Amino acid sequence: MSKFTLVPMSEKHIAELARLEKICFSQPWSEKSLREELDNRTAHFLVAEFNGVVVGYIGVFVVYESCDISNIAVFPEYRRQGIGRLLLEGACDVAQKGGAESISLEVRPSNEGALALYRSVGFEEVGLRKNFYRNPTEDGLILSKKLISKETVKKNENFSN
Questions:
Q1: Exposure winner among 22, 98, 114, 158, fewest CB in 10 A?
Q2: Which of 106, 133, 151, 157 is catalytic?
Q3: What is the rounded distance in angstroms from the CA atom of residue 94 to the CA atom of residue 108?
Q4: One-character DSSP codes across 109-122
Q5: Which residues on adjacent β-strands are paired with residue 6?
Q6: pLDDT digit string (tens) for 22-34?
Q7: pLDDT value, residue 148
């Protein structure tokens, strides 16, 4: 069993997530931007905690049959401990429960660690956004993963019963 837990983002997480954003991204989300997602019905932000301490998070937006990952970040001192994988699995679970058939994200081609993680959980490169990132300017690789639909899950449950 993992020593890390996933919980829905709440007001108590906002300041720490904004601090994490500043550490990880050249264009970080602000506390205000994160707080606005608390009331967004399409947004599902999951926070990874260790003994109540924020160690990482992921933000996903589920709209009909698609899901986009907007952000995923882990504090440097907690990296390479399976938290990114746990966050991605949580995001896929949220997406499937929301009816999504696929989940996608953008990543810098230079972010080799993230690319290796995404590929290891089944994401595949499907496109490129030219000059997508700033500070420094860099393309964004679009990665996507097919999910099992709710109908397939129901069929499999019915078949095994």
A1: 158
A2: 106
A3: 24
A4: TT-HHHHHHHHHTT
A5: 48
A6: 999 988 999 999 9
A7: 80
pLDDT at 156 over 70: no
pTM of the model: 0.87
Buried b (16+ CB within 10 A) or exposed e, 82-108: bbbebbbebbbebbbebbbbebbbbbb
Tokens 């390479």 -> residue:
80
**Residue 81 to residue 16: CA distance in whole angstroms:** 20
Phi, psi of 4 (to 5 degrees): -105, 145
* Residue 106 annotated among the catalytic residues of the structure: yes
Strand arrangement of the beta sheet that strand 43-50 belongs to: 5-8, 43-50, 53-63, 66-74, 102-107, 138-146, 124-133
- Domains in the chain: ranges and CATH: 5-160 (3.40.630.30)
Token digits of residue 28 = 């970080």
CA distances from 41 to 9, 61, 133, 149 (A): 13, 9, 27, 20
Out of 21, 37, 118, 138, pick the active-site residue: 118
Whether the per-residue pLDDT at 103 is higher than 90: the answer is yes
